[in-house]
Amino acid sequence: MIALVKFEIKKIFRNKVMLVVLIFGLLLNAFAIYTNDKMNSSNQYMNGKFKVYQKIKGEITQEKYDYIFNCYTKVNDLVEKGNYETEKPDVKYFTGFVFGDRTLFKRFLKDYQYIINYNDQIGNALKLAKDNLSYYKNPEDISLNKKFIDTFTNRGVSEYYETTNMTNYLAHDFSTFMIILLLLIFVSGIFSEDMEYQYHQILYTTKLGGRQLFLARIMAAMVLTMLFCLLFYLEDFAVYHKIDILEGFLNPIYSLPNYQYSSISCTILAFDMLSIFTKLICLFITVYIIALCSLVNKKVLISIVTSFVIIFALLYFNQVFLNPFHFVDLKQTLYSYQMISIFHTYLPSIIVYFIGILIEFICISIIMYKIAKKRGSEKHVSHYPMGIQKNYH
Fold first, then answer.
1. Minimal CB count within 10 Å: which of 33, 178, 249, 342?
2. Residues 51-94: pLDDT tens digits?
3. What separation in angstroms does the CA of 389 have from each of 207, 326, 384?
4. TM spans, by residue (predicted)?
5. Pair type for strands 159-160 and 339-342
């Protein structure tokens, strides 16, 4: 079985077209990151940003806050008075220009103020939730407010790291869509190609042509999916790390402004790993969908079109409850505090979705295995080419 899987994988990688398309996909993904996140950032601006960042990153202190606030106030006053140079860079400014410094310090000040004020914001929300406990008598409302209090109590951020690039990195989904397109191209013919060229008539007569070949091809497609994920997600990290500051993975996820009301408390690193894992589950389900379409279509082109329509319909309606493609855009689930009531007990929506997707994956896996078992039990009238009969006398 292992040898058969290796053979199917080697067969895929002998396809030079696949390598060309894969390289093109990686280049397109890198280009998408650069165009979306580095359009307005010159090298001079980035150098100035890095110098200031080295002074203020790490432990949050009043001294660092005063430094950012005073620098911003100074350059902002210069801009408002119109006393600045716009044509030639000035070495007294970190970015070379007073406008650049004002933009730079304004962003840092906003990030720093968010972290400093986070405890107060959460404190106000907790006070409201505690007041609701004495006001509402409905068991579900009481459970919801208690869960909110348990979730947000003892939250706090003690260190500052640049947030904009990290937020963009976590929100980048283009690489996942590229992987889906590559799977559509290279997995759609996994079974239909045999039927289109009538290879299946020969394969079914062999010892390994039924269940084992079916499972080997599915497993090879899974390995291909994991390889695509490894290449594209490593590229995401490398490119975002190259174009801007990407630090603070051990900070809590709610240290990023977009995730301040996240229903789970974990590090940014844990969230990133969870996001990659859930995307991998969705991509495995994608492989199953494509394989099923390939089973029922005798033409590769029809298999590609059918798979494309089904997958992108699921992607379009990805916010539908328990849609297997919901986790392709995991960030939307954590941008706000979302809870789901299960038997009068509130659970974070991300946990409910995750369990649901795992159950769907297991169910589809069982279906695929039963199909493979059925193929292995198929009885063939003859192991000889059509039209040839063996005579027994």
1. 342
2. 999 999 999 999 999 999 999 999 898 888 876 666 777 778 88
3. 20, 54, 7
4. 174-192, 213-234, 268-293, 300-322, 342-369
5. unpaired
State the DSSP H helix or E strand holding residue 340, giving kind and residue range, or none if neither: strand 339-342
DSSP 191: T
Q: How far apart, in whole angstroms, are the C-alpha atoms of residue 151 and residue 145?
A: 10
Q: Are 155 and 122 spatial neighbours (Cβ–Cβ below 8 Å)?
A: yes
Tokens of 75: 């350059």
Give the 3-state secondary structure of residue 265: coil
Helix (H) or strand (E) holding 117: helix 98-135
Q: For residue 52, what are its two tokens? A: 């200031």
What global pTM score does this model have?
0.81
What is the chain's length?
Answer: 393
Rounded Cα–Cα distance for residues 97 and 119 (Å): 35
Contact between 220 and 8 (Cβ < 8 Å)? yes
Domain chopping of the chain, boundaries: 1-39+162-375, 57-159
Distance from C-alpha of 262 to C-alpha of 245, rounded to nearest angstrom: 23
- Of 34-38, 167-171, 332-336, highest mean pLDDT: 167-171
Cβ partners under 8 Å of residue 373, min gap 6: 211
Q: Which residues contact 177 (CB under 8 A, 6 or more apart)?
A: 328
CA distance 274 to 354: 10
User: By the 8 A CB rule, do 274 and 330 touch?
Assistant: yes
CA distance to 60, 195, 201, 335, per residue, from 386 (Å): 79, 16, 9, 62
Nearest-10 Cα torsion for 205, 206, 210, 212: 180
| Distant-in-sequence, close-in-space partners of 392: CB < 8 Å, separation ≥ 6 | none
Contact 240, 34 (CB under 8 A): no
